[in-house]
Amino acid sequence: MRIGIIGAGNMGAALGKIWAKAGHHIIFSYSRNENKLRQLAASAGETARAGTPQEAVAHSDVILFAVWVSSLEDIIQALRPLNNKIVITCVSGLQPDFTGQTIGLATDLKISVAETIQQFAPNAKVVEAFNTTFAEIIASDSRQFGSDFPSVFYCGDDVEAKQVVAGLIEECGYQAVDAGNLIVARTLETLATAWVQFAVSSQLFPNLGLKALRR
Ligand SMILES: NC(=O)c1ccc[n+]([C@@H]2O[C@H](COP(=O)([O-])OP(=O)(O)OC[C@H]3O[C@@H](n4cnc5c(N)ncnc54)[C@H](OP(=O)(O)O)[C@@H]3O)[C@@H](O)[C@H]2O)c1
């Protein structure tokens, strides 16, 4: 699969490296430091390279948005229409000071960040995922906690896109949990905020995994 990473920071770098190791073709993009992007791509292996966000979109079927919410609107404006692209967003509306206020984009504060992406790019297949895990866990050697593996909840409106994203979640070593349609992102983003706050207040950050138990 060809995956374009927009935002090669904690989340984008960690996920891109795992997917590159699994054999996917990765383009890392969107950094203020081009050298950092090149070094990241080199460390990810032969199937990874650095590029511009426009190249990442043009040469990929799946796009990961791993940027801060404050940058998101400008980025989407520059990259849309994103027609038929599977767009994974892990962008959360968490305030930078972790006060926990979930914020949407300025255009509509009542809906989720993920739905706002969908509004900006109506023909993209937006799937929200990876919001309730920490980059430090993704970047570590394994997602294993004792005999357990954490869940990653995902939601979206396109069934096939969700299947693709579920596969990418499982390749990272998580249990993929279908949380429903994209509207669920409103509460999933809030859950992510609560999860970060709990991790900080319990002083267990980042060594925590959230799991949906089934019986
Ligand atoms: N970290 C987590 O554990 C975690 C978990 C779940 C969800 N999230 C969400 O994932 C998103 C990314 O988080 P992250 O921790 O990966 O962030 P990060 O490490 O700060 O990465 C942000 C990326 O955006 C790039 N960028 C380019 N221009 C920028 C600008 N003007 N200002 C700021 N960044 C710019 C940064 O490039 P540079 O190389 O120049 O820094 C970096 O590659 C956020 O929405 C966050 O809420 C994070």
Summarize the structure in words.
The chain is α/β, with parallel strands linked by helices and 215 residues long. It has a single domain, classed as 3-Layer(aba) Sandwich (Rossmann fold), CATH 3.40.50.720. It is 39% helix and 17% strand. It is built from eight helices and eight strands. An eight-stranded mixed beta sheet has the order 3-2-1-4-5-6-7-8, sandwiched between helices. Helix 1 (10-21) packs parallel to helix 2 (34-44). The termini are far apart. The model has no long low-confidence stretch (mean pLDDT 93). Bound molecules: NADP nicotinamide-adenine-dinucleotide phosphate. NADP nicotinamide-adenine-dinucleotide phosphate binds next to helix 1 and helix 4.
Average pLDDT number: 93
Give the class-level CATH name.
Alpha Beta
Query: What is the assigned CATH homologous superfamily?
Result: NAD(P)-binding Rossmann-like Domain
- Overall domain count: 1
CATH architecture label name: 3-Layer(aba) Sandwich
Instruction: Compute the separation of the termini in Å.
Output: 34 Å
CATH fold-level topology:
Rossmann fold
Q: Which features does this protein show?
A:
single chain, 215 residues, globular, binds NADP nicotinamide-adenine-dinucleotide phosphate
Give a short overview.
The chain is 39% helix and 17% strand. It has 215 residues and is α/β, with parallel strands linked by helices. The protein has one domain (2-201): NAD(P)-binding Rossmann-like Domain (Rossmann fold).
Strand and helix layout:
Elements (H helix, E strand, L loop, with lengths): L1 E5 L3 H12 L3 E5 L4 H11 L3 E3 L2 H6 L3 E4 L3 H11 L6 E4 L23 H8 L4 E4 L6 H5 L11 E6 L2 H13 L3 E6 L4 H17 L14
Parallel strand pairs: 1-2, 1-4, 2-3, 4-5, 5-6, 7-8
Antiparallel strand pairs: 6-7
Helix pairs in contact: 1-2
The structure holds NADP nicotinamide-adenine-dinucleotide phosphate.
